[in-house]
Here is the input.
Amino acid sequence: MDKIDIIGLGEVVVDWVSKIPHFPKPDEKIDALSENYFSGGVTANYLVSVSRLRVKTGFIGAVGDDYYSDFLIQDFKKENVDTSVTLKKSGFKTPVNFIFICNGEKTIIQSPHMQITKLSTSD
Here is the structure.
């Protein structure tokens, strides 16, 4: 890792965001108004924001070894966040959170894989 001004230790996730006209009732199927996915997580968002201010940042954390991990690492690199010590955990899935936005309010369904990609002292 080159000279880094700010190191973030935490989690990075994929946020799958859908705008919906209303929250569905049980067994109701509705069409989303829009859907997109983004890199997310409080630590990751902070590092990207600070990096955009031309501060050298790095991320210490973990992802799984799937398509989403590649997406997150590439997005960090695009945003000039150093990932040289970001761990890819073999055999694990990268967390994907589902976020539903309705009338300006959001509901988040958090991935069960959030706990799996947390770093341990042995990492």
Q: What stands out?
A: The radius of gyration is 16 Å. Residues 3 and 56 are 7 Å apart (CA to CA). Strands lie at 6-9, 13-19, 34-40, 57-60, 62-63, 81-82, 87-88, 96-102, 105-109. The chain is about 20% helix and 35% strand.
